[in-house]
Amino acid sequence: MDNIKMAKSYLRQAEERLKHAKEALSDNYAYVIRQSQEAVELALKASLRIVGIEPPKFHDVGPILRRNANSFPEWFRKEIDKMASISRMLRREREPSMYGDEELALPPDELYTFEDAKTALDGCVFVLNNCKKLLDEVEKCNKSNCWKGCEEDFHKTSGGVGHLK
After folding, report:
1. 22 lies in which domain range?
2. How far is the C-alpha of 21 from the C-alpha of 31, rounded, in Å?
3. What's the pTM?
4. Alpha-carbon distance 9 to 88, whole Å?
5. Under 8 Å between Cβ of 38 and 148
6. Tens digit of each residue's pLDDT (9 = 90 or more) over 86-95
7. How many structural domains compose the chain?
8. Where are the alpha helices (DSSP H) in 1-113?
9. 3-state SS of the chain: helix, strand, coil percent to 5?
10. CATH number for the domain including 110?
11. Do 36 and 100 meet the contact criterion of CB atoms below 8 Å apart?
């Protein structure tokens, strides 16, 4: 399987969800949260693929990122805890943002405020920007084959796996 090709596809899908989340920010807060969650999930799964790690089939991959932090470059490692926290927060809102809260008999539209939606969207942008930067870095290395002699821990620990197609 071509991990870089899959990662690019995941990031393209995440970008599309982010676009729809931004469009909905003025009046559909639950939708913003749902789309932000899906975008974060796709972006973080793309980051795992970039370094050659098969993403799990569950929604919050934050613990997998933390467990495999040494597979990533230093700048990305510094952001893993924040990205994992964003992923965990949005994962908890995945179902309520679509189905509402059945115990409270509240539909999704009554659960969230503008601040909730803005927080979700801001977190999504943060995660997506970091994951796109990771892909850009790897693609530059692929073009120059820098990983073969690179001194970056990221390249040593992944054995270049994240760079290979």
Report:
1. 3-163
2. 7
3. 0.87
4. 23
5. no
6. 999 999 999 9
7. 1
8. 3-24, 29-50, 62-67, 74-92, 96-99
9. 75, 0, 25
10. 1.20.120.330
11. no
